[in-house]
Amino acid sequence: MKDTYEAADFVNANNGSTNGFDLTKSHDRIIDPIFVSDSLEVKKYGLLTEAYYNCFPSDHFPVMGVIAWLFFLIWPLGAMVESIQNQHYCERF
């Protein structure tokens, strides 16, 4: 198991993951981790830090990760298994 913050190819986290409902304070502690299996690839990690009318909806920022996995094709009808060489992955964000 691995932490997406440490494993990501790209990280967008300029501060910690909590805000205490205060726009003026910041820290660098990431206390809201996303853990994934070692078999998955972590493309991106980010904290969504925007305020709405100078207010936060929570005392924690939303955490986002883009996770990729390799998949295999069975072709034709289970006769041959091929690994996809160009590493297709699914991005949901």
From TrEMBL:
Keywords: Membrane, Transmembrane, Transmembrane helix
Name this polypeptide is given: Endonuclease/exonuclease/phosphatase domain-containing protein
Transmembrane segments: 61-81
Keyword Transmembrane: yes
InterPro entries, per the entry: Endo/exonu/phosph_ase_sf
